[in-house]
Write a structure and sequence with these properties.
single chain, 14 strands, about 25% helix
Length: about 350
């Protein structure tokens, strides 16, 4: 989840007011992880914030936006493409979406998952790198128990918005089957990015598993997830990595989160699917020393996050080899007569 607005915009404005030049400020927020993004053929984030100063505020719990010039943070951070299929893209309505698309396109950043109507929102983004054609689809879906947003965030035949279905599982399954059925034959690797799950939870919902498996069954070779603001389990299903939630990234929504740990997904896609996949543990912020500036976790902190995700992933038949290796060893059984085996009184 990447949100250049709200608290992050306020921090940027403080730096500008203090005399920091824009050309120095824009690269600051991605600096700690930029080498990884720059080295990737395609670096993808979930843009959870429209770039606009216009529009009518959509009545909902939280609304984010950033001035269009802050798109330069993404460009300076070597971000190549974004998914817009989330619960904040339409926070400032039709004008907000128009401004966002214009800002991204002006910065040379590709996008998918939202548009002027449902057909445009569901249209895949197809890119070629090193002779491989990859196709990207994005959807926002939550069950009724998790949904806190108005139905107006979703695109219809005549209304702009994001791809996906409002609490209707049959509709969501139908969109997936239709879109992937058409896309999979056109590309070497199809990627689906879902915005889903229960906010603030590291537990995967049953509908996340159902939709992820359906996506793979219809040809997806990689499934990514966002929205919970926590890292969730990673499954490997029929050879396809499923990252149920990657947590936050350059996230201005919270100044000092209770869980600052997160992760990047690094995946090598080939014609047969994903040949390599791993998690790269990060810390998203250090308030107030280095706010909204992710850095790589190392040593015990890195191992601790990997062990945590390994525990979350233990209920799935298969996960990443990296997480199998990181799984905590089971407690040793006490030998007969050992005091550790004595029942407490």
């Amino acid at each position: 989840d990447t949100t250049p607005g709200y608290n992050l915009q306020a921090h940027a404005d403080e730096q500008l007011a203090a005399g920091v030049p824009r050309e120095q400020l824009w690269p600051l927020y991605f600096a700690g992880v930029r080498p990884l993004l720059e080295a990737a053929d395609l670096a993808l984030v979930n843009l959870e914030c429209p770039f606009t100063e216009r529009g009518r505020r959509l009545p909902k719990n939280f609304n984010f936006r950033a001035r269009p010039e802050l798109v330069e943070m993404l460009r300076a951070g070597s971000v190549d493409l974004v998914t817009l299929a989330n619960n904040h893209t339409m926070d400032y309505g039709r004008d907000g979406l128009r401004d966002t698309l214009a800002a991204l396109e002006g910065a040379g950043i590709q996008h998918f998952g939202a548009g002027r109507n449902l057909d445009a929102a569901r249209r895949p983004l197809i890119l070629e790198r090193n002779g491989l054609r990859a196709g990207f689809l994005g959807y926002y879906y939550q069950s009724a128990e998790d949904m806190l947003e108005p139905e107006a965030v979703y695109a219809t035949r005549r209304r702009p918005g994001v791809a996906g279905c409002y609490t209707d599982p049959a509709c969501m399954r139908r969109q997936l089957e239709e879109d992937l059925g058409a896309l999979a034959a056109q590309v070497d690797a199809a990627v689906v990015y879902f915005h889903w799950g229960h906010e603030g939870s590291d537990q995967v919902r049953d509908y996340q598993v159902e939709l992820a498996h359906l996506a793979v069954d219809w040809g997806a070779r990689l499934v990514l997830g966002a929205h919970p603001h926590r890292v969730q389990a990673v499954e490997v299903y029929k050879g396809a990595p499923v990252y149920y939630s990657l947590g936050n990234f350059v996230f201005g929504g919270i100044k000092d989160p209770s869980e600052p740990r997160s992760a990047l997904a690094r995946v090598r896609l080939e014609r047969g699917g994903a040949s390599e996949a791993e998690l790269v543990p990060i810390r998203t912020t250090r308030w107030p020393e280095a706010p909204f500036q992710p850095t790589l976790l190392e040593g015990e902190e890195r191992d601790s996050l990997l062990a945590h995700v390994a525990r979350l992933s233990a209920g799935f038949p298969q996960t990443l080899p990296q997480l199998v290796a990181a799984a905590p060893a089971p407690p040793a059984l006490a030998a007969p007569g050992d005091s550790a085996a004595t029942a407490p009184r």
